[in-house]
Amino acid sequence: MKLFITGFAGFIGFHAAREFLRRGWEVVGIDNFCDYYDVRLKRDRAAMLAKEPSFSSCELDICDLEGLRRVFAEESPDVVLNLAAQPGVRYSIVHPFVYQKTNLEGFLDILECCRHAKKAPKLVFASSSSVYGGNKKMPFEESDQVDAPVSLYAATKKANELMAHTYSHLYGMQTIGLRFFTVYGPWYRPDMALSLFADAMTHGRPIKVFNNGDMLRDFTFVDDIIDGIVRVVEAQNLPLYDIFNIGNHRSEKLLDVINILADALGIEPKMEMLPMQPGDVYATYASIEKLSKAVGYEPKTTIREGIPVFAKWYKEYHKL
Predict the structure, then answer these.
(1) What pLDDT, on the 0 to 100 scale, is given for residue 278?
(2) 68-100, pLDDT tens digit by residue?
(3) What is the CA radius of gyration of the chain?
(4) What are φ and ψ of residue 241, in 5° steps?
(5) Three-point CA angle 23, 28, 30, nearest 5°
(6) What does the alpha-carbon distance between residue 77 and residue 83 come to, in Å, rounded to a whole number?
(7) What are the boundaries of each domain within the chain?
(8) Of 27, 41, 167, 259, which residue is the least packed, with the fewest Cβ within 10 Å?
């Protein structure tokens, strides 16, 4: 079986590619290596994957429709895992048109290539817990209303779900969306909370703690996320279109997360308490019952187990 991964040099894409290679898949990856965060980290991930004989890749943007068409024609994948996107809630407030280009136009390119492929591939794509907006009912369930996003990033992810549904309905394509909940682990993105906290702590700076630390997040270790992705990709009995939460089914206090990370790094944290940022939400908490019933998904890693693994990698990678 052949898997085509967009955004393979990203955090989740890298881990997914490694696992599918380990399971005997042929993996083809594309990435545009954008400079939203330090490209060296993406290059380092890509270099590790390049050592694998069943892996091939090219530098390509999903907004390059003709380039995408060539890859689809040459590779004829069985499954497409679309992880390429412009991430970031706060960044979307300052740079809205980047999200229009990558998350809307780029995703449409992926849908069109799947639609016109000689052998229509199964499409599994990344959505986000951010689509739930300021939802107060916990845990978040896939049946909840998600028509009140509080950031443009969230709006583009909801738009992806709607676009995929349309293509499934019109053209009989199988499209499955996964709403990721705060993924973390080794080879983590430097713009995300744990990396920002670790960077501040190891350089003696205070951590910026928003909403005075009164926030809850469903932190999900990357190995558990990848297990869920593999189960969805390999499942034979899923509907033509569906959406699943993929999280840890635990909502953790932000201050607890900071303290576990500080202990793992052996540093006493300094904290700068700040108000809530525009576009942020107070809490995320995934109901995973639907994914569990569909494919047997069962996350195993608590933050007390997973955060020290991240901290160990962080110190080794940054030579601290």
Answers:
(1) 86
(2) 999 999 999 999 999 999 998 889 999 999 999
(3) 19
(4) -140, 135
(5) 130
(6) 15
(7) 2-252+261-269+275-317
(8) 259
Determine if residue 319 is left, alpha or beta; phi over 0 gives left, psi from -120 to 50 gives alpha, anything else beta. Answer: left
**Is the model's pTM score more than 0.90?**
yes
C-beta neighbour count of 69 within 10 angstroms: 15
Q: Estimate to the nearest angstrom the gap between the alpha carbon of 278 and the chain centroid.
A: 21
Contact 190, 257 (CB under 8 A): no
- 314 flagged as catalytic: no
| Cα separations in angstroms, 253 against 103, 128, 150, 166, 278 | 30, 20, 21, 38, 20
Which phi and psi (to 5°) does residue 299 adopt? -65, 145
Mean residue pLDDT of the chain comes to 96
Angle at 161 between CA 158 and CA 165, to 5 degrees: 145
What's the chain's length in residues? 320
Question: Residue 44: helix, strand or coil by DSSP?
Answer: helix
Q: Spelled out in words, what is the top-level CATH class assigned to the domain 2-252+261-269+275-317?
A: alpha beta
Instruction: Return phi, psi of residue 267, to 5°.
Output: -130, 140
CA separation for the pair 125, 3 (Å, rounded): 13
On whether the CB atoms of residues 183 and 220 are closer than 8 A, the answer is yes
Three-state DSSP class for residue 234 = helix
Give the type of residue at 72: F
The two structure tokens encoding residue 51: 């050592």
- Beta-strand relationship, 183-184 and 220-221: parallel
Spatial neighbors of 95 by CB under 8 A, at least 6 apart, are none
The tens digit of pLDDT for each residue in 149-161 reads 999 999 999 999 9
Question: Given the structure tokens 């499954």, which residue do they identify?
Answer: 79
The active-site residue out of 36, 91, 153, 314 is 153
